[in-house]
Design goal:
5 helices; globular
């Protein structure tokens, strides 16, 4: 998986450590789920309507393994409904894998808590 955004190495290492290649791109109300993820992208990015600038955006909770060309470029990933569904899906995966959030992750979850309640 090529790290193409500003995530710390531990984020990419976590997804690689799971052997995760499932594409979590979420558009048209469905997750891709094909075994072709080739990079990580931010779920909440500067293009997002609710974006709040800060280091907390580097959180693993804001990372989504996707296929860059097939499922991200020119797809409506940054529609709030899709972001909410994707944030919840990533949190479910991390919880299932018993991921322990660090301080930056906790800050991300607090700042964007309203997304998890929608």
């Amino acid at each position: 998986m090529k790290l193409s955004n500003r995530f710390p190495p531990k984020v990419e290492q976590f997804w690689k450590g799971l052997g995760w290649w499932e594409c979590l791109s979420n558009w048209n109300g469905k997750f891709c789920r094909k075994n072709h993820a080739d990079c990580l992208h931010h779920i909440i990015s500067p293009q997002s309507s609710g974006y709040i600038k800060g280091k907390h955006n580097e959180s693993i909770y804001n990372s989504a393994p996707v296929n860059n060309w097939d499922c991200h470029i020119s797809k409506p990933m940054h529609i709030e409904k899709n972001e909410v569904e994707l944030l919840k899906e990533v949190k479910l995966i991390l919880d299932r894998e018993l991921y322990i959030p660090d301080d930056n992750d906790k800050e991300f979850l607090i700042i964007y808590k309203e997304y998890y309640g929608k």
